[in-house]
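INTERNAL AUDIT FORM
Audit reference: QA-55
Scope: verify that the stored structure record matches its stored sequence.
Auditor: D.O.
Record contents follow.
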Amino acid sequence: MDTLLNDFQNFSLWLISKENLQKVSSFILRVNNQVHMNSNIIIYKDFVKTREIDNDSFSTSHFYAIKNRKHEIVGTIKAQKWDRQSPLPIEHDFNIKVADIVSNLNCYPNEIWHIGRFAIDQEKVKKDQFLRKNRLTLLKLLLANAFQHIYTNPSNIALAECDKKLFEKLKLLQINSTPIGESKTYLGSETVPIYNTSSGVEKNKHLCYTPEQQDLHSA
């Protein structure tokens, strides 16, 4: 069963269990198709590939989800700790070697995390007045729970494939990530591979909170 991390009355934050992992896999594909292809159709082979990747990485990952009052998923994000052996998605999808990124840093990272499976169902958000008014809060909550694994050690780094529009939005939130390759069309949108250091995240402690430290009931 999924683990309830915090109930904010109008929505809730969950840690997804392996038995419900396929819900995240289908959610991310459906939302990306909605946003970038104006379609709710999920291509089966894409679902199988996504589900297999999520299953294989589950033991080293944290899958977070925000659910509405109907217990429907409205947002997801994944933080995966690299085991220093298995290839990360950013490597085979963008032809990037993590070893090359590490060699360009001033110090060897303590932990390397991959941030992925980030999506917010804008259609569901629009239909819920509270969620619509607090969509930025949903974004921050998902980012905070993914980033909390990064800022625990000053030498940790995060890697991600980031939608270009989100990349620009992160700049406005003063999360200045560094591109590490050319952008390409990925899951229906122009996507840029990026990395961020722990210090880059630590500058934004207003985003890096655990749910217990914030009162969103009246947000």
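Auditor finding: record pair retrieved intact. Residues 21-37 form the longest helix (17 residues).
Action required: none
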